[in-house]
Specification:
The chain has 263 residues and is mainly beta. It is 11% helix and 43% strand. The protein has five helices and 14 strands. A nine-stranded mixed beta barrel has the order 1-2-3-6-7-8-9-12-13. A hairpin with a 6-residue loop joins β7 and β8. The termini are far apart.
Length: 263
């Protein structure tokens, strides 16, 4: 009999985490169609309650690559996609939303879904180079080890070795008019349900971020190792290949109890 995985560590908020991150941003117009096969993992794409929850408004989209060195459930790697803002039913305005996210371990998958409606799934992260500093390439593969084709590729390069560093925080984003709150709709249940748990409420999540040492980098989204049509060769349809990003070193995140919204 195969060994059974250990029980999930169920850790309620608040969470305080330390990590390194690379964050790339690009503008997407609501006049274009939301690419559902890119914006959502298959489980959430199949759930109208999640994937059709509120009108997509476009705006500032982000791809984030993170390595957590300290969390309540231990270290793990993460890739996050936010395609801009969505209108929230019930008169709650428009807010950013994580629609697709992958992590490298089970405990954070369950807790992210249960605590904050974050639609986490497990993936295999493979690196060429060292994540702690560019240059490096990361490729994401399905959890199934028999699949040898990546579904996401990104390469990081220095903008310049002499680029200055600067402090970065969520307060800085507020001053630029970028809120640090996200609103997440309820999640569908997947298999195994003890990891891919479902939820029933809308959550508004507000966190604080601080990095004493941030630096600009280049992010290359040219997809590799797979057959893709020309429109999606840089992952998001019609997206250019190279993007400015921010490298957050020794970053700190605090994420508290969500606010339950009535919609």
């Amino acid at each position: 009999m195969a060994d059974q995985p250990p029980p999930i560590r169920k850790i309620p908020p608040p969470w305080t985490c330390r990590y390194t991150a690379y964050v790339g941003a690009f503008y997407v117009s609501a006049k274009s169609a939301l690419s559902r096969d890119v914006a959502y993992a298959p489980l959430e794409a199949s759930s109208a309650e999640f994937s059709e929850a509120g009108v997509w408004k476009g705006g500032m989209a982000m791809i984030q690559l993170l390595r957590y060195t300290s969390t309540p459930v231990g270290p793990y790697d993460e890739m996050i996609f936010l395609p801009g803002k969505f209108e929230v039913p019930g008169g709650h305005g428009s807010h950013t939303r994580i629609t697709r996210i992958y992590v490298s371990q089970r405990d954070t998958t369950y807790n992210g879904r249960k605590n904050w409606n974050i639609p986490k799934h497990i993936a295999r992260f493979q690196y060429t180079g060292d994540f702690s500093a560019p240059p490096f390439t990361v490729q994401l593969y399905p959890e199934d080890s028999s699949v040898d084709t990546p579904f996401f590729t990104a390469s990081l390069q220095h903008l310049s070795f002499w680029t200055p560093t600067f402090p970065f925080s969520s307060n800085f984003l507020k001053r630029l008019g970028i809120p640090n709150a996200m609103v997440q709709p309820p999640l569908p249940e997947g298999d195994p349900k003890d990891v891919l748990c479902g939820t029933n409420e809308w959550y508004k999540n507000t966190g604080t971020i601080y990095s004493p040492k941030a630096k600009l980098v280049w992010i290359d989204l040219k997809q590799a190792g797979q057959e893709v049509d020309k429109e999606k060769e840089n992952w998001w349809p019609g997206l250019k290949r190279w993007h400015l990003g921010v490298w957050l070193q020794d970053a700190h995140l605090t994420l508290g109890e969500p606010e339950i919204l009535k919609v």
